[in-house]
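Long-time lurker. I teach an intro course on protein structure, and each term I like to show students one example going from raw sequence to a predicted 3D structure in token notation. This year I'd like something fresh instead of my usual example. Would anyone be willing to generate the tokens for the chain below so I can use it in lecture? Attribution to the forum is fine with me.
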Amino acid sequence: MFAVERREKIQEMLQQQGRVSVAELSEVFGVSDDTIRLDLKHLEEHRLLIRTHGGALPVKKVSHSTPYGQRLNLEAEEKVAIAQIAVQLVQPGDTILLEGSTTTRPMADFLPENAGLTVVTNSPGIANAVIVREGIAVILLGGKLDKDAQVAVGPIVIEQIARMRVDRAFFSTSGFLYNRGATSASIEDAFMKKAFVAAAKQRVLLVTGAKFGQEGLMLSLPLSDIDTVVCGSGATDSELNSLIENGIKVLKSEWNPSSE
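-- Reply from a regular --
Happy to contribute to a lecture. Here you go:
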């Protein structure tokens, strides 16, 4: 069997099984482990799979953004658990940026009151949740309102944030590849994230388990643009160790879907 045929079969097995191991593939195709590792490396370089310790996972494509109202109820408990960890990074007197999303939204409910905080956000929903808290100032970025995402987007928002400097920025993502970074389902979202990153001293990415292994249209935040990842379940120890080896601090919640 030629290498190209073997690699096509590996992709078929991935789609059918959800994951493959080097040992399994070596036995199936009657070749050495080193040959299989070269196959997996080749396929990963072409963004056709994600290598893990001892095997590989399929890349799940993100083609569009689910409307905000539907996303609110997706992974809700996990998002709360992640938010509770993320707010521990906030220091008294901080100016923080909360990118508008259903993953960052729960942070608004756990921010410490009367600690001299200022929250900058492009989300009317987050602004409304924070403004009722005691002693927290709110700066709402204005611009074109995306009806599905319920956030302000576009060049007006980018121009505003370009004039600011915040202590910490908290982001979510449409997809996350542990060896590449955060991906976006749209070009507009990717450029927004780049502008937010440029305004922040510390960049914190919040990632639910379902986002690991998903790939969007564009790479919005390469690993070099991320200082800390706060995540739930879904990432393997080898994936998290890979992030740590790239100089990224990893905070993982103890939330477990089986405990629901």
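Some talking points for your students: The mean pLDDT is 88. The longest helix spans residues 3-17.
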